[in-house]
Amino acid sequence: MTTQTISAPEVYQGQFGEFTITKSDRTGVIIYRSGLMIAAVCFAIGSALVLFAPHPTIFKLLTPLYACFSLALGVSLLTIHIYMVELHRLLQVFWLIGSITAIVLALSSSDPLAIAVYTQPLSLLGIGFTFAALTGIYFKEAFCFNRLETKLLTPIVPLLLLGHLLKILPIQWERVLLGTWAILFLVFAVRKAVQAIPPDIGDKSVFEYLKARRSAKA
């Protein structure tokens, strides 16, 4: 007769006490990383089409690619672990504002979404909130894990979007920044895929401590 042993979950020492990592915790991290990977791939494909095959028929393909990118980013924002609940909710609100703007623009414009945004820079005041949420992820990853690619992405995204909005960037610089963004985003997503899971979950004792403080104030 074979005796099966079930190993006890590993206990971690946090700042405010011990905690364990559950299967649900791990699943959440996998979903978060999967969303980032899908978003990065969609963004890279779209960027490559714009940079190397800028044909009118291609621009129509960018709309479903953007929709997939945005949905995947939304899933990542639902499952990301951020200690500050207010910041987490703010990034989600940013994503929602950007998504609603994109839907309205796509339905109201006779041009493909990419053309509408490019030719109407002021639309970035709405749809740009989605990229502000993405930049928030880059900043969080740079702060928590000291990743070079996210340190570079954090200023690149607002530089490109604000540069286009204010019409101060030459087209060649916009192309360079877009290509750099796409490459670094892919590098980031791939590195996240092979990173150990526990660091992405963080110190659960901090989450519990902050939750208890909020409950005490309520």
What does this structure look like?
The chain is mainly alpha-helical. It is built from nine helices and two strands; from the N terminus they run ββααααααααα. It has helices at residues 23-52, 56-79, 85-108, 113-119, 124-145, 148-165, 171-193, 198-201, 204-217, and strands spanning 11-14, 17-20. A two-stranded antiparallel ribbon has the order 1-2. α1 (23-52) packs antiparallel against α7 (171-193). The model is unreliable at 1-6 (pLDDT under 50).
Total beta strand runs? 2
Integer average pLDDT: 90
Largest sheet: 2 strands, antiparallel
* Helical proportion, percent range: over 70%
For the termini, the CA-CA separation is 55 Å
Classify the secondary structure makeup into a structural class: mainly alpha
- Our count of helices gives 9
Low confidence ranges: 1-6
Strand content: under 5%
Task: Walk across the major sheet and give the strand order.
Answer: 1-2
Bulk shape: elongated
Radius of gyration (CA) equals: 20 Å
From N to C, what is the helix and strand string?
Answer: EEHHHHHHHHH
Short synopsis of the structure:
This protein has about 220 residues and is mainly alpha-helical. It has helices at about 25-50, 55-80, 85-110, 115-120, 125-145, 150-165, 170-195, 200, 205-215, and strands spanning about 10-15, 15-20.
Give the key terms.
218 residues, mainly alpha, two-stranded antiparallel ribbon
